[in-house]
Amino acid sequence: MSYRLRQIETLAYNAVGHLCVLSQTTRVLTRALDRLPEHGGAPLDVLVLCQGNVCRSPYAEIRLATELRDVAGDALRIHSAGLLTTPGKPAHPVGCAVAARRGVDLSEHLTIATDAEQLAAADLVLIMDPSHRRRLARLARRQLAKAMFFCAPAVDRTTPLVVPDPYDLPETVFEACFDQLDVGVAALARELRARVAPERKSAARG
């Protein structure tokens, strides 16, 4: 698919997200959360995907794990991988620099290529853009019901559904990408905590 067609596709998906906001039907974007199994012993497996596992998914993985550090491990396993990548590559150097200024250390990250086995083991698969959904359909179509856009729980009039790839683009694009992911992390953390540790959520309210 050409760059221009990808842009049009991104605009179309973002338009759907905004229509869901306007019609107050955003739950259709987060059905994968409603399909999560009841937490009972084994941690829920949350897999964060992007294309190369060098920019978006490693940052999102660490930020989400940090936000949920009080329940991660016992109740959640959060990890990331790439849909089209070579294993063992480091994170993008610009992404590393931008992430470091935000307190996220990507210096030890090495890429992982996802496969059908990893996807089958996941309880929730978080994707960034429409190309990931197409790739996922080719790789493991039966796992599509587990898939959800990373920013789906955060979609509103200012936060779009799709997180564009900043690979090899200026630092300002990485900043914007990570800003959007941070908003998605906050919304996802609320949703996941409510499912795996509802008693902690109730205590926080009290």
Characteristic terms for this protein:
about 210 residues, alpha/beta, 8 helices, disordered C terminus
Q: How would you characterize the overall build of this protein?
A:
The protein has 206 residues and is α/β, with parallel strands linked by helices. It is built from eight helices and four strands, in the order ααβαβααβαβαα. Strands 2-1-3-4 form a four-stranded parallel sheet. The N and C termini lie far apart (51 Å).
Show the helix and strand layout:
Elements: H1 3-22, H2 31-34, E1 44-50, H3 56-67, E2 76-82, H4 93-101, H5 116-121, E3 124-127, H6 130-140, E4 147-149, H7 171-196, H8 198-205
Parallel strand pairs: 1-2, 1-3, 3-4
Quick structural summary:
The chain is α/β, with parallel strands linked by helices. It has eight helices and four strands; from the N terminus they run H-H-E-H-E-H-H-E-H-E-H-H.
